[in-house]
Design a protein that fits this description.
35% of the residues lie in helices and 16% in strands. By secondary structure, the protein is of the alpha/beta class. It has a single domain, classed as 2-enoyl-CoA Hydratase, Chain A, domain 1, CATH 3.90.226. The strands form two sheets. It has a seven-stranded mixed β-sheet with strand order 3-4-5-6-7-8-9, sandwiched between helices. Strands 1-2 form a two-stranded antiparallel sheet. The longest helix is centred in the middle third of the chain and has 17 residues.
Length: 297
């Protein structure tokens, strides 16, 4: 049956000129809030924000860089090369094979990428954690990338911005993954010693060991609307304390009301907000900044 389906039928269609066009799977994306189908290119042009419900969809790292840097021009920072599989970890799939597939899919070496450029004419280092790379998990390579980017900001004497999205520490690297928590904390202290702003942007989701380290050590904490932010999962907390958690628990707006987040910022206003905060913390003159990143309909 496979031979007939895979060879005979396509051959007949090609002879008759009835070859079926392949449609990309991601041509249309369904809004998880309203159920509306949105054309992928339209969603991309709107910074991956669904126009109907205002739901902030997961954004790729390259999209973050394009959104933030002036003219989408920036210098890609090269991270140190880490040991690929220090523990020779293997579950259903070998960790080295999992890394290989993730690198090919994300076109990146690991879950954290960083770039240096200008954000509204303000020199800045921006690091982005990609949830699509093994759940944005924190391993040795990601830790090295964060530390190298922070130290590069010190050498350039400019603000450092971190877009966080992660499921936590990478279990395939065990204790070596957990060691990135104090290592990145030390790098944050180096930024503070140089009196440079460290701005954290919490996106959906930010959980686990990442929340217990650099994600909550910023001078200013911004968050995208309705982003899940916390350490343990809501179900685990409810089972532990044996109580029902309040509505909206571990969401951006709830955390802002309770003092863990300074501002909840729409993605369309993120660039202008970050640059304005950076200028204030660097004690520079305020400038008129572009807020309309997306053309009005």
């Amino acid at each position: 049956m496979n031979w007939i389906k895979n060879f005979v039928r396509p051959r007949i269609r090609s002879i008759l000129g009835q070859e079926k066009r392949e449609v990309p799977e991601n041509m249309w994306i369904k809004d998880p809030d309203s159920g509306q189908m949105v054309f992928y290119k339209d969603l991309e042009a709107n910074l991956f924000v669904f126009p109907g419900s205002n739901h902030h969809h997961r954004m790729p790292a390259e999209g973050r860089f394009t959104m933030m840097f002036d003219g989408a021009e920036f210098e890609k920072l090269v991270a140190p090369i880490a040991v690929a599989d220090p523990l020779k970890f293997r579950a259903e799939k070998r960790y080295v094979d999992q890394l290989k597939d993730a690198k090919a899919k994300a076109a990146a070496e690991d879950s954290v990428q960083a770039g240096y450029g200008e954000v509204n004419e303000q020199p800045m280092v921006v690091a982005v954690q990609d949830m699509g790379f093994i759940g944005g998990s924190l391993g040795m390579a990601a830790g090295d990338a964060i530390i190298a980017a922070m130290r590069y900001a010190v050498t350039k004497h400019c603000p450092f911005v971190m877009f966080v999205a992660s499921g936590g520490a990478r279990m395939q690297e065990g204790i070596l993954s957990l060691m990135q928590l104090p290592r990145t904390t030390i790098a944050v202290q180096e930024l503070r010693a140089a009196k440079l702003p460290y701005i954290v942007v919490l996106t959906n989701p930010t959980t686990g060991g990442v929340t217990a380290s650099y994600a909550m050590l910023g001078d200013v904490h911004l968050a995208e609307p309705n982003a899940q932010i916390g350490f343990a999962g809501q179900r685990v907390i409810e089972q532990t304390i044996r109580e029902k958690l309040p509505p909206g628990f571990q969401r951006s707006e709830y955390l802002k009301d309770h003092g863990m987040v300074d501002m909840v910022v729409h993605r369309h206003e993120m660039k202008s907000t970050v640059s304005r905060i950076a200028r204030l913390l660097m004690k520079q003159d305020a400038r008129v900044e572009t807020t309309a990143l997306v053309p009005a309909e």
